[in-house]
Write a structure and sequence with these properties.
It is a single chain. The chain is of the alpha+beta class and about 80 residues long. The protein has three helices and two strands. Strand 1, helix 2 (about 25-45) and strand 2 (about 50-55) form a beta-alpha-beta unit.
Length: about 80
C-alpha cells in the first residue's frame, strides 16, 4: 500500500510527481487509490507545478499506454 507509506515520510524538496491512470482493466481497479493519493496531495498543498496528473481515457496497464504516457511525462519533466 504505497499511500500508507507515503503519508509516513517527509516530502523531499523539489519532488515532482507524474501520475497517470487509464480507464479500463487493472487501471480501473487502481483508480480509487489514485484518487486517494491526489486528495492527499491537495490536502498537504503539494505544489501544483510539481504535479502532472491525468486520466488517460484510452489507457490501460500496458507497454503501449506507458510509451505514450512517458513521452508526455518526459516533456513535462524537462520543460
Amino acid at each position: 500500500n504505497y499511500f500508507q507509506q507515503l503519508i509516513k515520510v517527509n516530502q523531499p524538496k523539489n519532488l515532482q510527481l507524474a501520475i497517470v491512470n487509464g480507464t479500463y482493466g487493472l487501471d480501473l481497479e487502481l483508480q480509487f487509490g489514485v484518487d486517494e493519493l491526489i486528495g492527499y496531495l491537495n490536502k498537504i498543498n503539494f505544489p501544483k507545478e510539481n504535479l502532472l496528473y491525468w486520466v488517460d481515457q484510452d489507457g490501460n496497464h500496458s507497454p503501449k499506454s506507458w510509451s505514450h504516457q512517458a513521452k508526455v511525462i518526459l516533456q513535462w519533466m524537462y520543460k
